[in-house]
Amino acid sequence: MTAFITRCFKNNSLLVVLATLALLFAAVAEAQAEDIEVRHAALVAGEEGYYLEADFEIALNVTLEEALNKGVPLFFQLEFELIRPRWYWLDEKVLNTQQQYRLSYNTLTRQYRIGVGSLYRNFDALAEALDFLSRVRRRQVLESRILTKGNTYMAGVRMRLDVTQLPKPFQLNALASGEWNFGSEW
Predict the structure, then answer these.
(1) What percentage of the chain exceeds 70 in pLDDT?
(2) CA–CA distance, 53 with 139 (Å, rounded to integer)
(3) How far is residue 29's CA from residue 24's CA, in Å, rounded to a whole number?
(4) What's the Cα-to-Cα distance from 112 to each of 35, 162, 185, rounded to whole Å?
(5) Who's near 51: CB < 8 A, 6+ residues apart?
(6) Are 86 and 92 in contact (CB under 8 A)?
(7) How much is the pLDDT for 6?
(8) Burial class (CB in 10 A: 0-12, 13-18, 19+), 38
(9) Mind listing the pLDDT tens digit for each residue in 97-116?
(10) Exposed, middle or buried: residue 74 (CB in 10 Å: 0-12, 13-18, 19+)?
(11) Collapsing DSSP states into helix, strand and coil, what is residue 3?
(12) DSSP letters along 63-85, please?
């Protein structure tokens, strides 16, 4: 195949320029990738148990922002898991908790709204709403009695877009395109 390419391009400098441009476009696309990134996560001991404190960086892609501004609510899932590694068998999943956040936009009031359970809060700008969504503070995730002395535990946290909560036409689009696959790593 390389022989064919070199015959088509008698001047190899053109080939080098094209390859450089392709790499440049790939690097720019990767640098502009919007996703969720875990900046900081910690378990803090309290009187009643352990609390999760985490900071995420959330940057919506164009598709998600357009859907939100057209009235499609976005559901984000905060997931926490606690695992006890075992050398003799599979790791034991001690705890797995989830919290759902609903981000929506009201075109009449021009406000963004985040709902957590039965609590709601309004924001004038999307950046303010995403800033609120990206900070998890004092969320109790486990009681002290769950942990036993002498054992080692691994904890993981992530946030992702829950595409199962989207309207059905968007769920089909989410399966077909990677633009809706939006979340952080554990």
Answers:
(1) 76
(2) 7
(3) 9
(4) 19, 18, 26
(5) 43, 44, 45, 138, 139, 140, 141
(6) yes
(7) 42
(8) middle
(9) 999 999 999 999 999 999 99
(10) buried
(11) helix
(12) HHHHHHHTT--EEEEEEEEEEE-
32: helix, strand or coil: coil
Separation CA 24–CA 21 (nearest Å): 5
pLDDT tens, position by position, 105-158: 999 999 999 999 899 999 999 999 999 999 998 888 888 888 888 889 898 999
Angstrom distance (rounded) from CA 74 to CA 67: 9
Residues 6 or more apart whose Cβ sits within 8 Å of residue 144: 45, 48, 49, 50
* 3-state SS record for 129-180: HHHHHCEEEEEEEECHHHCCCCCCCEEEEEEEECHHHCCHHHHHHHHHCHHH
Binning pLDDT at 50, 70 and 90, where does residue 68 land? very high
Tokens at residue 78, please? Answer: 């905060």
Token digits of residue 1: 């195949």
Length of the chain: 186
Q: Could you tell me which of 82, 16, 15 has the C-alpha nearest to residue 52? A: 82
Q: What is the CA radius of gyration of the chain?
A: 22
